[in-house]
C-alpha cells in the first residue's frame, strides 16, 4: 500500500450499505443522519499503526490522524494534524511541522508535539518485523520545541520523507494508551481521526461514528460507517445484490467483475466503475531454500511463467501482465523482465537448468494466502502450477494459509516461494523498490543489493522532481531482473461496485489506494 509521481492513483473498491432504520437522504447538508456500511474481503491484521504495513490501513486511515495526508485529488502531502510543514534546509535533511492548536485524542488527552514524537519513536522502538519501521530508515531523531513544533532530523537527504509521514502507519497515538515497547492488541483504538471506533468484532465488522472533536482536512459527508468483513467475495456480492450492502471494495473476483459489467442478472440498479490500479502481484523466492535459493531455478521459472495466459484465464481482462516491479503509470516503469526473458520458452528454461547441472524435475512448494487478495488467488496459483508442471521441469505443491498465519510464516522465512501483493504507500517508483530491499524488507527476508540501496536510492532521494529520476530506477529494475528474487506477475485494475444511489466513490480513494470513508454518502431521493 506512498508519494509524488504522475500516477493516476490506484483506486480501491468501496462498499457501503444503509443500516436498518437509518435514513440517508441528502447530497450535502441534510439534517437527517447519514449512516453507511462498507463491505470488504480485506480484514485488518492489526489496529495498531506501529504494526501496520498492509490492508489494515483502510481502517487506520479513518480513525487516526497523521501530520500530513492526501486529500482527494492531491498527489502531494497536505496538512492534517499539522497546520503546516516544510523542509527548513536546502538539503532535505530537516523537516519541520507545526501542529494545529486544540487537538486531542478520543480519551481526552492533548495531542501535542510530545505525542507526535512518542508515536514515531515507538514505531522504531518496537520495530515489528515486516512492519512500517522499514520506512523510517532515513530518520535520525525527532525533536520537539514547545507544545506545537516538531522537527524531524534525517541522516541523509530524503525528498520522500513527507510522503512517508502521510502514510497511515505514521498515525498519531495517545501515549497513555499505547505502550512504548509493545503493540496494543485489545481491539480498541485511541486516535484523533475523523471517526471513533465504536466497536470492533474481528472477522465481522468495525463500527465507526463521527468524532465530534476532530480537527483536520476531512469534510465528512456521513455520520457513521459500518465496515463489514467477508471471508469470500461471493458472499459479499450476494449481499450487494440483496441490498444488504450497497457496494463492495477489495476482493471482487474477475468473474464477478465481468458479471457485473455485463449485468448478467439484469440488476440495473448497480454501478461498476473501473479505475487504473497500481497494485501489483509477484512471487518471492527464499534464498535459503535448497531449490529457490538457486539462481538457475529462479531464472527458469521466470522463463516459463506465461503472464498473458494467467491474466486471460484467471483475471479475464481485469488485470494486465507486469514485467517490472514498477507498474505502468509510475515514472520509471520498464518491461525489464520481458526484455530479458522474452516470451515463455520451455527450451530456454531447460537449458538454464541443465547449464547449472539440474537435470531432474525440481520439486518446490508455493504458498499463498486465502483471504487477503480475493478469491482469484487460488485459481491464479493453480494456473502457475499448471504452467510450470506442463514444462516437465518442475513439480509444484501448493499450500495456503489465512493472512495472519501466512504473514507469520513468511516473516519467519518458512516458505520456499510465496505470493505477495503490494498496494502502493505512495505513487512513486521508490515505493516499488525500496520496501523490498534491506534488512527490514516487507518480504520478511533481508535482501541486500548495495548498488540500489547505497547508490540509486540515495541519488533519487535528493531530487524533488520525481520525473527526473527515471533513469536511475530503470537501472534498479535491471538489477532486480538479474537476481530474480522477486518475480512480477500482474498489475491490477480496481473496481467500485455500488448501488446507483451511492455517491462519493470517485472521491473516496486517495493516492495510497486507501478508502477515505468520509467522502461517501447516499444521494438525495428527490
Automatic annotation (TrEMBL):
Is Signal a UniProt keyword of this protein?
yes
Per the similarity annotation, which family is this? Belongs to the bacterial solute-binding protein 5 family.
Q: Which UniProt keywords apply?
A: Signal, Transport
Q: Name one Pfam family in it.
A: SBP_bac_5
Q: Which SUPFAM superfamilies match?
A: Periplasmic binding protein-like II
Main subcellular location of this protein, as a coarse class = other
The family database entries (InterPro entries) matched by this protein are listed as: Peptide/Ni-bd, SBP_5, SBP_5_dom
Signal peptide annotation? 1-20
**What protein name applies here?**
ABC transporter substrate-binding protein
Q: Which compartments is it annotated to reside in?
A: Cell envelope
Source organism phylogeny: Bacteria, Bacillati, Actinomycetota, Actinomycetes, Kitasatosporales
Domain spans labelled Solute-binding protein family? 77-441
Amino acid at each position: 500500500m506512498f508519494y509524488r509521481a504522475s500516477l493516476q492513483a490506484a483506486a480501491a473498491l468501496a462498499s457501503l450499505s444503509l443500516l436498518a432504520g437509518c435514513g440517508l437522504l441528502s447530497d450535502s447538508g441534510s439534517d437527517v443522519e447519514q449512516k453507511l456500511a462498507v463491505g470488504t474481503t480485506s480484514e485488518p491484521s492489526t489496529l495498531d499503526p506501529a504494526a501496520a504495513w498492509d490492508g489494515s490501513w483502510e481502517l487506520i486511515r479513518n480513525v487516526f490522524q497523521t501530520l500530513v495526508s492526501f486529500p482527494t485529488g492531491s498527489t502531494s502531502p497536505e496538512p492534517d494534524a499539522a497546520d503546516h510543514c516544510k523542509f527548513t534546509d536546502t538539503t532535505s535533511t530537516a523537516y519541520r511541522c507545526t501542529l494545529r492548536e486544540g487537538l486531542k485524542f478520543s480519551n481526552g488527552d492533548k495531542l501535542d508535539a510530545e505525542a507526535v514524537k512518542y508515536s514515531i519513536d515507538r514505531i522504531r522502538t518496537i520495530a515489528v518485523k515486516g512492519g512500517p519501521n522499514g520506512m523510517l530508515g532515513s530518520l535520525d531523531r525527532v525533536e520537539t520545541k514547545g507544545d506545537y513544533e516538531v522537527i524531524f532530523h534525517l541522516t541523509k537527504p530524503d525528498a520522500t520523507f513527507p510522503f512517508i509521514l502521510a502514510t497511515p502507519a505514521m498515525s498519531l497515538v495517545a501515549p497513555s494508551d499505547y505502550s512504548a515497547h509493545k503493540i496494543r492488541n485489545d481491539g480498541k483504538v485511541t486516535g484523533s481521526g475523523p471517526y471513533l471506533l465504536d466497536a470492533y468484532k474481528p472477522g465481522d465488522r468495525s463500527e465507526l461514528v463521527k468524532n465530534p472533536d476532530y480537527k483536520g482536512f476531512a469534510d465528512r459527508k456521513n455520520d457513521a460507517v459500518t465496515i463489514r468483513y467477508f471471508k469470500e467475495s461471493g458472499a459479499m456480492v450476494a449481499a450487494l445484490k440483496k441490498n444488504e450492502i450497497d457496494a463492495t471494495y477489495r476482493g471482487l473476483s474477475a468473474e464477478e467483475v465481468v458479471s457485473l459489467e455485463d449485468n448478467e442478472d439484469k440488476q440495473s440498479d448497480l454501478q461498476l466503475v473501473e479505475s487504473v490500479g497500481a497494485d501489483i502481484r509477484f512471487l518471492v523466492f527464499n534464498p535459503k531454500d535448497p531449490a529457490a535459493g538457486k539462481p538457475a531455478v529462479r531464472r527458469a521459472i521466470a522463463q516459463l511463467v506465461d503472464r498473458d495466459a494467467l491474466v486471460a484465464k484467471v483475471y479475464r481482462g481485469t488485470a494486465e501482465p507486469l514485467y517490472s516491479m514498477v507498474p505502468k503509470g509510475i515514472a520509471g516503469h520498464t518491461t525489464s523482465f520481458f526484455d530479458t526473458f522474452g516470451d515463455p520458452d520451455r527450451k530456454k528454461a531447460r537449458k538454464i537448468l541443465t547449464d547449472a547441472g539440474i537435470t531432474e524435475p525440481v520439486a518446490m512448494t508455493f504458498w499463498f494466502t486465502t483471504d487477503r487478495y480475493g478469491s482469484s488467488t487460488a485459481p491464479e496459483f493453480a494456473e502457475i502450477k499448471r504452467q510450470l508442471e506442463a514444462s516437465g521441469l518442475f513439480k509444484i505443491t501448493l499450500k495456503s494459509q489465512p493472512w495472519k498465519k501466512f504473514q507469520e510464516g513468511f516473516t519467519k522465512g518458512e516458505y520456499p516461494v510465496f505470493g505477495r501483493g503490494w498496494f502502493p504507500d505512495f505513487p512513486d517508483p521508490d515505493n516499488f523498490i525500496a520496501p523490498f530491499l534491506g534488512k527490514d524488507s516487507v518480504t520478511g527476508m533481508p535482501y541486500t543489493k548495495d548498488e540500489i540501496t547505497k547508490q540509486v536510492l540515495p541519488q533519487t532521494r535528493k531530487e524533488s522532481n520525481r520525473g527526473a529520476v527515471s533513469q536511475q530506477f530503470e537501472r534498479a529494475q535491471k538489477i532486480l531482473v538479474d537476481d530474480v528474487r522477486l518475480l512480477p506477475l500482474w498489475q491490477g485494475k480496481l473496481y467500485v461496485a455500488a448501488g446507483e444511489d451511492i455517491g462519493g466513490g470517485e472521491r473516496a480513494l486517495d493516492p495510497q489506494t486507501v478508502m477515505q470513508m468520509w467522502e461517501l454518502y447516499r444521494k438525495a431521493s428527490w
